[in-house]
Amino acid sequence: MNDLLDIDLLTKAHSGIAYLVLLIYIIRGIMMLAGSALTSSRTALGVASLITLALFGLGVFIAFEKHLSFADGFVLTKIIGLLLFVAFGTVALKQGLSKLIASILWLLGLAAFVYTYLIATQKVLPFF
Fold it and tell me: pLDDT tens, 5-42?
Protein backbone atom coordinates (compact mmCIF):
# COMPACT_ATOMS: atom_id res chain seq x y z
CA MET A 1 0.00 0.00 0.00
CA ASN A 2 1.29 3.45 -0.86
CA ASP A 3 2.42 5.38 2.24
CA LEU A 4 1.24 8.63 0.65
CA LEU A 5 -2.35 7.41 0.66
CA ASP A 6 -4.37 7.33 3.84
CA ILE A 7 -6.99 4.65 3.15
CA ASP A 8 -8.98 5.62 6.24
CA LEU A 9 -9.21 9.20 4.96
CA LEU A 10 -10.18 8.00 1.49
CA THR A 11 -12.83 5.73 3.02
CA LYS A 12 -14.25 8.69 4.97
CA ALA A 13 -14.25 10.78 1.78
CA HIS A 14 -16.03 7.91 0.01
CA SER A 15 -18.68 7.89 2.76
CA GLY A 16 -19.10 11.66 2.49
CA ILE A 17 -19.55 11.41 -1.27
CA ALA A 18 -22.14 8.65 -0.71
CA TYR A 19 -24.16 10.98 1.55
CA LEU A 20 -23.91 13.73 -1.08
CA VAL A 21 -25.10 11.34 -3.81
CA LEU A 22 -28.06 10.37 -1.62
CA LEU A 23 -28.92 14.00 -0.89
CA ILE A 24 -28.86 14.91 -4.59
CA TYR A 25 -30.97 11.85 -5.42
CA ILE A 26 -33.58 12.81 -2.84
CA ILE A 27 -33.65 16.43 -4.03
CA ARG A 28 -34.05 15.33 -7.65
CA GLY A 29 -36.80 12.90 -6.59
CA ILE A 30 -38.68 15.71 -4.85
CA MET A 31 -38.27 17.89 -7.94
CA MET A 32 -39.56 15.00 -10.08
CA LEU A 33 -42.65 14.60 -7.91
CA ALA A 34 -43.23 18.37 -8.10
CA GLY A 35 -43.10 18.17 -11.88
CA SER A 36 -40.07 20.45 -12.17
CA ALA A 37 -38.26 20.53 -15.50
CA LEU A 38 -35.05 21.10 -13.52
CA THR A 39 -35.08 17.39 -12.61
CA SER A 40 -33.60 16.47 -15.97
CA SER A 41 -31.72 19.69 -16.70
CA ARG A 42 -28.17 19.39 -18.00
CA THR A 43 -26.83 20.95 -14.80
CA ALA A 44 -28.70 18.60 -12.45
CA LEU A 45 -27.80 15.58 -14.56
CA GLY A 46 -24.16 16.65 -14.87
CA VAL A 47 -23.67 17.27 -11.17
CA ALA A 48 -25.40 14.02 -10.20
CA SER A 49 -23.41 12.05 -12.77
CA LEU A 50 -20.03 13.47 -11.76
CA ILE A 51 -20.58 12.90 -8.06
CA THR A 52 -21.89 9.36 -8.62
CA LEU A 53 -18.88 8.66 -10.84
CA ALA A 54 -16.60 9.96 -8.07
CA LEU A 55 -18.35 7.60 -5.62
CA PHE A 56 -17.87 4.62 -7.92
CA GLY A 57 -14.31 5.51 -8.91
CA LEU A 58 -13.14 6.10 -5.35
CA GLY A 59 -14.80 2.87 -4.24
CA VAL A 60 -12.98 0.91 -6.96
CA PHE A 61 -9.70 2.64 -6.05
CA ILE A 62 -10.13 1.77 -2.37
CA ALA A 63 -10.91 -1.85 -3.29
CA PHE A 64 -7.70 -2.03 -5.33
CA GLU A 65 -5.66 -0.44 -2.55
CA LYS A 66 -7.06 -2.90 -0.01
CA HIS A 67 -6.38 -5.76 -2.43
CA LEU A 68 -10.02 -6.83 -2.37
CA SER A 69 -11.15 -9.26 -5.04
CA PHE A 70 -13.98 -8.18 -7.28
CA ALA A 71 -15.24 -11.76 -6.99
CA ASP A 72 -15.67 -11.16 -3.26
CA GLY A 73 -19.35 -10.98 -2.30
CA PHE A 74 -18.86 -7.73 -0.39
CA VAL A 75 -17.34 -5.87 -3.35
CA LEU A 76 -19.52 -7.49 -6.01
CA THR A 77 -22.76 -6.77 -4.17
CA LYS A 78 -21.75 -3.14 -3.65
CA ILE A 79 -20.96 -2.73 -7.35
CA ILE A 80 -24.23 -4.36 -8.41
CA GLY A 81 -26.16 -2.26 -5.87
CA LEU A 82 -24.65 0.97 -7.16
CA LEU A 83 -25.33 -0.02 -10.77
CA LEU A 84 -28.97 -0.80 -9.88
CA PHE A 85 -29.23 2.55 -8.09
CA VAL A 86 -27.94 4.35 -11.18
CA ALA A 87 -30.15 2.36 -13.57
CA PHE A 88 -33.37 2.83 -11.59
CA GLY A 89 -32.60 6.49 -10.96
CA THR A 90 -31.75 7.19 -14.59
CA VAL A 91 -35.04 5.76 -15.80
CA ALA A 92 -37.13 7.21 -12.95
CA LEU A 93 -35.88 10.76 -13.41
CA LYS A 94 -36.50 10.90 -17.16
CA GLN A 95 -39.34 13.05 -18.43
CA GLY A 96 -42.39 11.32 -19.87
CA LEU A 97 -43.08 8.61 -17.30
CA SER A 98 -46.23 8.64 -15.23
CA LYS A 99 -45.65 9.83 -11.67
CA LEU A 100 -46.63 6.40 -10.35
CA ILE A 101 -44.09 4.50 -12.48
CA ALA A 102 -41.40 7.14 -11.90
CA SER A 103 -42.04 7.03 -8.15
CA ILE A 104 -41.83 3.23 -8.03
CA LEU A 105 -38.57 3.24 -10.00
CA TRP A 106 -37.21 6.06 -7.84
CA LEU A 107 -38.04 4.09 -4.68
CA LEU A 108 -36.37 0.99 -6.13
CA GLY A 109 -33.25 3.09 -6.77
CA LEU A 110 -33.40 4.39 -3.20
CA ALA A 111 -33.78 0.83 -1.90
CA ALA A 112 -30.73 -0.28 -3.93
CA PHE A 113 -28.72 2.61 -2.48
CA VAL A 114 -29.81 1.89 1.09
CA TYR A 115 -29.06 -1.83 0.70
CA THR A 116 -25.62 -0.98 -0.70
CA TYR A 117 -25.03 1.34 2.26
CA LEU A 118 -26.04 -1.41 4.68
CA ILE A 119 -23.59 -3.77 2.97
CA ALA A 120 -20.84 -1.13 3.20
CA THR A 121 -21.43 -0.60 6.91
CA GLN A 122 -21.68 -4.36 7.38
CA LYS A 123 -25.16 -4.20 8.88
CA VAL A 124 -26.45 -6.86 6.46
CA LEU A 125 -24.79 -9.67 4.53
CA PRO A 126 -24.19 -9.48 0.77
CA PHE A 127 -26.21 -11.64 -1.64
CA PHE A 128 -23.13 -13.47 -2.89
Answer: 788 999 999 999 999 999 999 999 999 999 998 988 89
Contact assessment for residue 52 and residue 22, using Cβ atoms and an 8 Å cutoff: no
Contacts of 115-118 with C-beta under 8 Å, sequence gap 24+, read 115/81, 116/77, 116/78, 116/81, 116/82, 116/85, 117/18, 117/22
Residue 127 lies in a domain: no
Task: Please indicate, yes or no, if residue 125 is contained in any of the structural domains.
Answer: no
| Spatial contact of 115 and 81, defined as CB atoms under 8 Å apart | yes
- As a whole number of Å, the CA-based R_g of the chain is 16
CA distance 26 to 85: 12
Number of domain units in the chain: 1
Give the pLDDT band (50/70/90) at residue 121.
confident
In a domain, 89, yes or no: yes
Q: Is 96 in a helix, a strand, or coil?
A: coil
Distance CA 63, CA 11 (A): 10
